[in-house]
Structure formats: C-alpha cells, structure tokens
Design goal:
Elements: E1 21-24, H1 28-39, E2 44-48, E3 64-65, H2 70-74, H3 81-92, H4 98-117, E4 141-142, H5 150-166, E5 170-174, E6 178-183, E7 207-212, E8 217-219, E9 222-225, H6 234-241, H7 256-263, E10 268-269, E11 277-280, E12 308-310, H8 325-332, E13 340-345, H9 346-351, H10 361-367, E14 374-377, H11 380-387, H12 391-407, E15 427-435, E16 442-443, E17 450-452, E18 458-464, H13 472-475, H14 485-499
Parallel strand pairs: 1-2, 1-9, 2-5, 9-18
Antiparallel strand pairs: 3-4, 6-7, 7-8, 10-16, 11-15, 12-13, 13-15, 14-15, 17-18
Helix pairs in contact: 1-5, 1-14, 3-4, 4-14, 11-12
C-alpha cells in the first residue's frame, strides 16, 4: 500500500545535484538509455533496486538479432530490417505493433555494431537460425559462446557505464527501490503540493521525479522507466496474463514500473497476448524459478522424440515430433494447468539423445525420486501414481501408442517419428510446466517511448523502455528470436539520445 506523503516526511535531493534524466532500472534497456544519454552530453541519475546492475542479463540466454549487420555481411548473409519485419509478421501472425517494431528494427543493427565495437564476442557459429522458438527464415541471431549468454553482454556494458561514472555524467545508485513518481505542482501551486503521482490527484501533471522506498526523492526533466517485467510477481501475473506462473524471470521482475505507471494514469498494452515457453522442470523448494540450465530437450528438429507427451488425464495432446515449437506452445495453453509429462522407457533413455540439457542418461536415472518431477517405476501403473497422472488414462494411451508404432502410423495426431514402443521397463516420467521467460503486457508508449494514457494522451516527462512496455509490443502473441534484449537496448539508446537533444527536442539545461 502506498504511503501517505507530506512535505515534512519526504527528503529533498542534494541541493547541488541536477540531472537531465532519471533512469529507473539498470537492466539492458536502462543501461543502454543511460549510456546513450551520457554519450550525448546529458547528466543521468541511474537508480537500481538490486545490489548490482544488469537486471535480466544475469539470467538471460543473451540472444540478440538484427537485419543487416557486420557479422551477417562477413558470412554473406543478405538481410535488412524489412526482411526481419516480414519474419516477425509471419511468426506473430501480425499481432506485434508494427509502428514500434519498425522503430526498433531500424536501430537494432546499430545496437549490434555498438556491442561488437565495445568488445562483445559472438559465438563463431552465429549468426544462426534458432529453433527454440518459431524460427526465422534468415540467420540473424547471435549470442556469446558461454551459456547463459546474458552476462557476456553485461561484461561489455560495464566499462561503458564506468567511464561515464568516472566523468560524472552518470550517477549510479544501487540498492534504491523507487516506489512512486512525482508530478510537478499545478501552475501557481506551492512546492509542497508535489507528491506521488496518482491519476485522480494529478490527472495531467508532468512527471518531474521519483520517490524512493525510504522517502528520498529526486527530480529531473524526464523519467525513464526501465524496471523490467512482472514474471516474479504472482498476483500481478495472474491479473494481467491470466495463467499459472512458473518462472525463470529475474527475482527483481516484480512489476514496479508498471504499477507506478498505472498509478500515474498510464494505459496497459499487450493484455491477452500471453504464450508460455514450452516446458521446463518444476521448481524445487521455496524458489519459484525453474532450473533453466537443466531443461528438457523438446525441440524435435534437434532431438527426434522417443517419448510421448501426456496431460494430467494421461492423454496425448499433440504430435511429439511437431517441428513448430510455436504450435506446441499454443497447444499447451489448452491443457489442464498447462502441465504435461514426457513418458518413456529404458530403451528410449538408452538410445535417444539426452532428454534433459546437461544430464546424461545415467544422471537422469540417478535423479529419479530425488529431484521433483522426475520419476521411475517398474510398471506404468506405479509410474502414474508417482507422477500424479491418471492411471487408466496412461495405460490406455501407451497401449494405443504402441499399436501405432506397430502399424507405422499415428492416426490421432499424425506423428511420423515412431522409433519404438514404450515397452521396456523401467518406465520414466518427467513433469513439465509452462515457463515464463518474459511478460507480454506493459505500459503503452508511442514511437518515441513516451508513456500514454488510455485516451492516447502523453504523460509529459514519462518514458518507458524494455520489458516494462511488454514483450507483445514487438513480439505480439509469439516469441521472435532476439526480440527481447535487442529492442530493450534499441529503445533505450533512442530515448537516451532523444532526451539529450539528439534526434528529439533540444535538451533542457540543468537547473
């Protein structure tokens, strides 16, 4: 619940400190924004609630994409933003905002060149086509060799940030949680009337600063929200995405910026666009985050499946060798709790490629009964009881599937890869949950990243970049490779330059 504020219980900023821009959140979008604004001569206050910068970069796979940059040219790959846009239209079924997507794609090649010039080393096998989601038609995704790759991006951003800190252009403060926005007092109003922004109290007021959890407040000509998504906020996730939450999002992804923006009257875009990432082991203990390092290998073009997928009733619900992860993700939304099990036998464990990233067959077997969601039993009935699957449903389904294997044809779902029946004990079941990597809803913005109200009016002085505007803005109801981190940095750089007077209205001098 928001605190009750008065002029007496709110700390004033240091009288000698003046900033052109306050950036809230030092993840990929916030760092890019702060660095770009400082590059162009602005003085920036960068506030981060965690103890270190980086945000989602600490957990991200670090996939970046652009159409028409040097790494593509070096490999003879012909590409440009228009071809990139055509792929996004196809994958998203036209559900992404084309105005924002065009703006981002035009800047994304420059983002890649900026990082490469700063020392970012891409995996020699990239640019490549990534099959973890619906693939592009052109190789345009790059990432570091290390997994996860996000920390490699952060490693090249740190020196850029440090140089501006040393020069006094960026004042970085970590461990500072911002809880509210300040609005300028009405014309002729007293300074003491300035307070936390609420749509009712300050309907058209310009955002003029921020309030910290400890009561401190700072003012600037512009505030940029770069606070990330809400994949670690179960109640907000249930409200906006309407789906069960199993997450691999950063623990800082609690929707702070979105909530502040809404209190200031901002509209929310991207609702109804949620789609889960296809399958991950359930969390263990009190940690709601899935183990994304050890995730089931469910991409059929990379590992033809020996297993079947069953829902809580023990029924199959899709062809397991379906090459489109997008189709699998959409089908997953139709089953109970979006939870399914990979069911297979000892022969499959022995002869298939590894079922789980990072685990050999022996390591998987060793974790049965010890790691949540990984089960083994001598017969299928016992396996169903251990896993929480309907016993009769599973027995009937496996018998039916084995008949399809013998006949060489799957009349139910059209599966073509039918390597062997599920018949050699012991039997295995691996539980899979929908995984939230990113959130799709967020603050509505225009093409200059200015936050808007429901009627389309701009909230003066307030900007938003990165996941706080929602992944649906440039992905629509889909996942497009590299279209999370790269747009966050693209929009961050654009608004940073704009606020410093490069590409926008002239920067106002510090007061």
């Amino acid at each position: 619940m928001a605190a009750t504020w008065s002029a007496d219980d709110v700390r004033e900023p240091e009288p000698t400190a003046t900033w052109d821009v306050i950036v809230v959140g030092a993840g990929p979008g916030g760092l890019a924004c702060a660095i770009a604004a400082a590059d162009a001569g602005a003085r920036v206050l960068l506030l981060e609630k965690a103890g270190d910068v980086g945000g989602a970069l600490h957990f991200s796979g670090g996939h970046l994409s652009a159409g028409g940059f040097s790494a593509q040219h070096e490999r003879g790959i012909e590409d440009d933003p228009e071809r990139h846009l055509a792929d996004i239209r196809r994958i998203s079924r036209g559900t992404a905002r084309e105005d924002l997507t065009r703006v981002s794609l035009a800047e994304q090649p420059a983002v890649l060149e900026w990082l490469l010039a700063a020392g970012f080393a891409i995996d020699p096998a990239t640019p490549r086509i990534v099959h973890g989601h619906e693939p592009y038609l052109t190789p345009r995704t790059v990432h570091a060799s290390a997994v996860p790759g996000g920390p490699a991006i952060l490693a090249v951003l740190r020196p850029l940030l440090a140089a501006h800190q040393a020069a006094g252009r960026i004042d970085l403060r970590c461990g500072v949680r911002i809880t509210d926005l300040l609005t300028a007092p009405p014309m002729g109003g007293a300074r003491a009337e300035t307070g936390p922004a609420t749509g009712a109290q300050h309907g058209d007021g310009r955002v003029s600063g921020v309030v910290a959890e400890d009561g401190n407040r700072w003012r600037a000509e512009a505030v940029v929200l770069a606070t990330g998504g809400f994949g670690f906020a179960p109640e907000l996730f249930a409200e906006l995405e309407g789906a069960p939450l199993t997450t691999s999002a950063a623990p800082t992804s609690t929707g702070d910026g979105l909530l502040m923006g809404r209190r200031a009257g901002a509209a929310v875009q991207g609702t109804g666009m949620y789609i889960p990432t296809f399958g991950g082991l359930p969390p263990e203990g009190d940690d709601p985050r899935v183990d994304w390092t050890h995730r089931p290998q469910l991409v059929a073009v990379e590992r033809p499946p020996w297993e079947i997928y069953v829902d809580p009733r023990g029924r199959r619900w899709i062809a397991e060798d379906e090459p489109s992860i997008d189709r699998k993700e959409r089908a997953l939304t139709t089953i109970e709790r979006m939870t399914f099990w990979m069911v297979f036998d000892e022969r499959a464990l022995r002869e298939s490629s590894p079922m789980v990233h990072g685990w050999s067959a022996a390591e998987l077997a060793e974790r049965c009964g010890r790691r949540r969601g990984v089960h083994r039993a001598g017969d299928l009935g016992e396996l169903a009881e251990l896993a929480g699957i309907d016993r009769e449903g599973l027995l009937e389904t496996v018998a039916g599937y084995n008949g399809f294997v013998a006949a060489g044809r799957d009349p139910d779902f059209g599966r073509a890869h039918l390597p062997a029946p599920i018949a050699e004990p012991p039997y295995y079941a691996i539980e899979n949950h929908p995984v939230t990597l990113i959130t799709f809803a967020g603050l509505d913005v225009d093409t200059r990243s200015r936050v808007r109200r429901a009627d389309g009016r701009i909230i003066p002085g307030l900007y938003a970049v990165g996941e706080v505007i929602g992944s649906a803005a440039v992905n629509g109801n889909a996942f497009c490779s590299g279209m999370c981190l790269t747009p966050a940095m693209a929009f961050g750089r654009l608004v940073g330059r704009d606020l410093a007077g490069r590409g926008g209205s002239p920067r106002q001098k510090p007061r």
